[in-house]
Records
---
Amino acid sequence: MNQVILDTLHSRLIARSSLFMLAARKWCPATILVASLACTRGLEWIQDAPNAVAVTTSGSWASMIYLARTDSGMIAIDLGWMGAAAALQRGTRRLDAKPSDVRFAFITHAHRDHIGGWPNVRAARFVLGLPELPYFMGTAQYQGLVPSSAERVSVTERPKSSDIAFIGISQDTSFVLGSDTLWAFVVPGHTPGSTVYLFRGILFGGDAVNYRPFTGFQGARPEMSDDPAQSRASITALWQRVDTLRVKFICSAHAKCARNSDELRRALAK
Ligand SMILES: [Zn+2]
């Protein structure tokens, strides 16, 4: 596993190995469709204000933004969708900070519903799977049925290459943030560069983790994914590389969390 030491206090970033660098509020509208998406689940387990908070955007679609203070500055995991600017304000206020204080934004994947707040934290370094970069920049298009159709209807605002600085990872990488370590594991399938992050006992599974009220937790949704079979294989292989004893909770990118268990991990492979 690669290791990267992140230290913004001294504007220092040390990268080793093959790292490639480039410059809740709950809201549940009363409709049947919305109710079926179930808003959030178990989000209270990962709330730890004033150290860390999880907020959601996009109403019941519940795209999650997780914010945490570390010795190396504030981090975000994913950046939500519609209403991300307000959600970032709300979340950072609970940490006695502001959105511009975010130093590192760890992105599970660049589907539009997880990067909405990028203009509000543009001074941060953006960490994501290297294959995800052209999709984040809008120079490549996802193959998943729903994401590709949505992009034809309305084009998502994407950064110019000069707007933000990226750290693209091509293999599992640990990031040292003072007394915290964040582990990034590559899990291609939902999108080519999908990545999950383990931080303070919480595995942020992106959309490789999916929850629906009647089916419970499962792997990536076929209609949303470039390659759902590859995503399931990636999640199965993940458990060979991650110390599952370190994982207390597993959360989807849509704010659905559960306690880690053998049963849950088996369900995510289905
Ligand atoms: Zn997605």
Note: The chain has six helices and 17 strands.
---
Amino acid sequence: MAFENSSGETDLSVETSGKPVAENRRGFVKKLAVTALALGAGGLTVQFGRFMTPNVLYEAAKVFKVGKLGDFPIGSRIVIEGRGVEIVRGKEGIHAISLVCTHLGCLVNPVKNDPEVGYACPCHGSRFAPTGKVLGGAAPTDLPWYEMYMDHMGTLVVDASTVNHKRTKLVV
Ligand code: FES
């Protein structure tokens, strides 16, 4: 608070709340410095944490296990959650088909009540045969099949980095 003295000048050294102004100002500057220091230390800690964390994009592995043969009975179609792949087992063998629409990448839905249609895309209406062949819609190409093999432990493995162009089924 400021007051005018008898000579008309403003006097800033008047006490407020029992402490001299200079002391109040010193306390304020001290608190400001401590706050700035704390913020600076916090910022440095965050930056250090970011520096110590590798700047990489984590992607799901392209080669992954899907289960034992017994998990896929003949006649089954089982979607592997989070992988965009369906495992289809028939009498002639087993194969892995991509569920990622070749138009803009939506996940297609398996269709089980229509022998002509195997998959339908919910985004723009593309439809695919049970083999993955395009039947209609915006999708430019068929749904790819991925390479599949059985490892030495008898576990089925899908290699989604390799397209099975010949569409050969794994005979088991
Ligand atoms: S993303 Fe499937 S039809 Fe467009």
Note: The chain has two domains: 3-52, 63-163.
